[in-house]
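Table S2 (text version). Query chain:
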Amino acid sequence: MIITTTASVEGKKIVKYLGIVTGEAILGANIFRDMFAAVRDIVGGRSASYEKELGKARELALEALEDWAHELRANAVVAVDIDYECFGKTNGMMMVSVTGTAVVVE
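Corresponding structure-token output:
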């Protein structure tokens, strides 16, 4: 399946719009990773553990989006938007949501 952030697929004609599809993934942040990330924030640098978790959440959300598009018999999803959010009492949860339009292309 073609999944793209653009509104069209180069070289292909959209012949049918099937509707909006979404996918979400919510992951809890581990307290030990939180502590190490806080230390990393103080001394500078990237937090590899958070990057890994965000990557995992993004992949899960995109898989859910693709599954929904398959159910609609789409062969592509266009105009995909990826959003990241932290929430929970102490911002201990991370959410990735993806939204796009399921289409059929020639």
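Notes on Table S2: Strands lie at 2-3, 14-28, 76-87, 93-105. The longest strand covers residues 14-28.
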